[in-house]
C-alpha cells in the first residue's frame, strides 16, 4: 500500500475510535446530538434538491412551450405559402382565401394568419398576415410632370442628408 494511503487509513481509524468513545461516554446524549445534526444536514440537502428539481421542471416546461410555439409559427408560415401557391387566378382581391386569413388547431395549440380589422388601439407590435404589396399605389411617383411630389431613388442625394 502507498504511504499516503496508509496514513489516511490510520487517521480515519483514529477518528472513528474517538467518535465512538465520545458517544459511549455521554450515555447517548452525544448520539442524540449527532443524530439531530445528521438529520439537519440531510434535510438541507433534501430541500435544496427539491428546489433544484422545481427549477428544472419549470425550465423544461418553458422549453416545451417555446418549442410548441415555434412549430405552430412554422406551420402558419407553411400554410400561408401553400395558400399563395394554390392561388391560380390572374387577379388578387380581398375575398380570396389567402386575403381573408385562416385559423387552424394543431394538438394543444392553434395558429391564426390574418390582418387585424382595426389596427391601432389594441394592437401593439407588428401586424402579421399576408399582404398584397403589388397592388399598393406608390405615392412617391404620383405627382404630375418631371418632378413629383415624392422622391424617387435616383433623386435622393445621400451626401446632402449625412452632411
Automatic annotation (TrEMBL):
Keywords attached to this entry: Membrane, Transmembrane, Transmembrane helix
Transmembrane domains' residue ranges: 30-51
Protein name, entry field: Type 4 fimbrial biogenesis protein PilX N-terminal domain-containing protein
